[in-house]
Specification:
This protein is mainly α. It folds into 3 domains: about 90 residues, Fumarase/aspartase (N-terminal domain) (Fumarase C, Chain B, domain 1, Orthogonal Bundle), CATH 1.10.275; about 240 residues, Fumarase/aspartase (Central domain) (Fumarase C, Chain A, domain 2, Up-down Bundle); about 100 residues, Ribonucleotide Reductase Protein R1, domain 1. It has 19 helices and 4 strands. The strands form 2 sheets. Strands 1-2 form a two-stranded antiparallel sheet. It has a two-stranded antiparallel sheet with strand order 3-4. Helix 6 runs antiparallel to helix 19. The structure holds arginine (ARG).
């Protein structure tokens, strides 16, 4: 008979048991569930709500179950529906009557909320630690490439030259923000919901602050209805995960492009590429592509859980049991992606010579050429048109701006002097963009120093 079977004249249909059970997902919260019960039982004993000896027996029993769970010795059963009732049933089997007092002043509704809060906080910490590893790796690579010129793009067209360090630091900024989002999500989840009961708290004199303290929470939830029916902390996590996957997917897309024969900016390590079953020459950047694809799945988790929660009346509704699969799918996908991305990135080779050649190509210095004329007194709008005409001329003549003769320059505007070549060289173009946030080596070095401080503060 189910733990709640008293008012029923029949056992649940087998179809119901299987459809309703969530022990598959519940297994992953077994440790949090037992830790929560340990704190609850200790508090019940301290408050004299249950006899001290019973509380002690429960604590010993739960500690035994916890160590068996950690040792992988326990198989949970679908018949007991969820992790909460599985643990309680096992406890009573092991310690007898005292086990039946554990659930005093508690409901599975606040119990699952507690487990969820703990899991969300654990996963935030796990994700932040993976992000920190990736950020350190990117910083290390950026430090080596302060002077590695490459084209910067808009519309995927050569725009203005930047450096590889500057490009990588853009991702460092994104991942630093992601890590802060997860830390904020952890802060938001840091409220202890036990004591909310099924929905309307309880008449027992529970010491909620004590439970919070035993479990390391900094606060308790302030409203029992909200305590059992909020899933914001999971949604916050999945949103942060979606954002982080979006950043990874942009990086992956660039690596796919950079690895193509058209770009050849990077060479994927053989260990992180796969071949074709028919085309012997192929070496495909599958891992980067797959990660781009998995981003869609995490977005799906976010929309799915938002939709589960949409329009639900207060307080607990069984719909909410769908939360765990979406949460774990997002957390597992993201954490694994961060791990794989870091390994893939660490094994890649950058072809700095190709990047430099490409930066010299495609008129990435045309803006600097116009700025040169401006310094010579020409209005920017006129300078823009003159250099546009120069570019059209170069395209016809099959030349770059650096290859034009002084006479050719002067044909377009008498303000051009011999010093134009210095003004449009790659080093000048990059080096002159030295304001904070710019690609000049000293500006990027400053950005790296600032990112290191932010990383240390995470
Ligand atoms: N297994 C449920 C969940 O994961 C918690 C139990 C509450 N169920 C209930 N019928 N009151 O959300």
């Amino acid at each position: 008979m189910a733990l709640w079977g008293g008012r029923f004249s029949k056992d649940p249909d087998q179809l119901v048991l299987e459809y309703d059970a969530c022990i598959g997902m519940g297994e992953r919260m077994a440790q949090q569930d037992i830790l929560g019960s340990l704190a609850h039982a200790r508090m019940l004993g301290e408050q004299g709500i249950i006899p001290k000896e019973d509380a002690e027996a429960i604590v010993r029993g739960l500690e035994g179950i916890l160590s068996d769970v950690r040792a992988g010795k326990i198989t949970w059963s679908v018949d007991a529906e969820d992790i909460h009732m599985n643990v309680e049933t096992l406890l009573t089997e092991r310690i007898g009557e005292a086990g039946k007092r554990l659930h005093t002043g508690r409901s599975r509704n606040d119990q699952v909320a507690l487990d969820n809060h703990m899991i969300a906080m654990d996963q935030c910490k796990q994700t932040v630690s993976l992000l920190k590893g990736l950020i350190s790796l990117l910083l290390e690579t950026a430090r080596e490439h302060l002077n590695t010129a490459m084209p910067g793009y808009t519309h995927l067209q050569h725009a203005q030259p930047v450096t590889l360090a500057h490009h990588l630091m853009a991702y460092v900024e994104m991942f630093l923000r992601d890590a802060r989002r997860f830390n904020f999500t952890c802060e938001m989840a840091d409220e202890m919901p036990l004591g909310s009961g099924a929905l309307a708290a309880t008449t027992y004199p529970l010491n909620r602050e004590r439970v919070a303290e035993l479990l390391g929470f900094s606060a308790i939830t302030e409203n029992s209805l909200d305590g059992v029916s909020s899933r914001d902390y999971f949604l916050d996590y999945i949103y942060a995960a979606s954002c982080c996957m979006m950043h990874l997917s942009r990086f992956c897309e660039e690596l796919v492009l950079w690895n193509s024969s058209e770009f050849r900016f990077v060479e994927m390590d053989d260990a992180f590429a796969t071949g074709s079953s028919i085309m012997p020459q192929k070496k495909n950047p599958d891992i980067a592509e797959l990660m781009r694809g998995k981003t869609g799945r995490v977005y799906g988790d976010l929309v799915a859980l938002l939709t589960v929660m949409k329009g639900l009346p207060l307080a607990y509704n069984k719909d909410m049991q769908e939360d765990k699969e979406r949460f774990w799918d997002a957390a597992d996908t993201l954490n694994r992606s961060l791990e794989v991305f870091s390994a893939m990135f660490a094994s890649m080779t950058f072809r700095t010579d190709v990047m430099r050649r490409s930066a010299l190509d495609g008129f990435a210095n045309a803006t600097d050429c116009a700025d040169y004329l401006v310094r010579r007194g020409v209005a920017f709008r006129d300078a823009h048109r003159i250099v546009g005409e120069l570019v059209a001329y170069c395209l016809d003549a099959g030349k770059t701006l650096e290859e034009l003769t002084p006479e050719e320059y002067r044909r377009f505007d008498p303000a051009f002097g011999e010093d134009v070549y210095g003004a449009i060289s790659l080093e000048t173009c990059v080096g002159a963009r030295s304001i904070p946030g710019g690609p000049a080596p000293q500006a990027v070095a400053a950005a790296i120093a600032s990112a290191e401080k932010k990383l240390a503060a995470l």
